[in-house]
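Running this now, will post back.
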Amino acid sequence: MTVAIHQPNFIPWLGYFYKIVRCDIFVLLDNVQYTKNSYINRNRIKTPQGAIWLTVPVRYQFGDSINQVQINNSTDWRRTHLKTLELNYRKTAFFQDVFPDVQRLYLQKDWQNLCEFNIALIEYVLSYLGLEKKLIRSSDLKTEGKSTERLVDIVRKLGGDSYLCGFGAVNYQEETIFHDAGIELIHSEFVHPKYPQVWKEFIPNLSIIDLLFNSGRKSFGILTNSSGEEPDELS
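Update: finished.
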């Protein structure tokens, strides 16, 4: 059984969902330290001027885990996001199919916790793609160790025999620890697909919301027919 693990990012890029497709169980790593200016609270969308960040404002203290981070609701960020999405994607082929659902999710409650909001968005994307996959929060598991040792412990507790990781993981994961634990390490060989986009030349590594607006129900086929590297965290 293959396990994949990743932080619960904000409307993640395509490679994130490709990992979900390829694993048996996907673990949302919600009880590790929050990283400022990362994909946990922001992602990129496309505009006529190029890619821009869509950011959820947050309140946190240094050392807070991801599931402790609160959303800063002192500004009407939800309507700002929705207006930005509408302005830049209303001419896409599947805007009317996707936007009402996204709008309902944004406005269905007064979101306070970043992790809960991110997971709700991830679950929506999975539902839209027609992808049924078991999601588990790492905070629901009694895990031990740090960094790679924690990942190995998660895989063991779930009865996994292989771990699916992105190419970026070679920079910080100690492969020998997986090997010594008898866990096969599999690299996600994701190559970013090209799909129709509005606004001039194609821009890769955007939030998957860009794919949904442009390709609708064809998105799953586009995603799974690909076979890349996770974009670097930008600060």
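The chain has one domain: 2-224. More later if anyone needs it.
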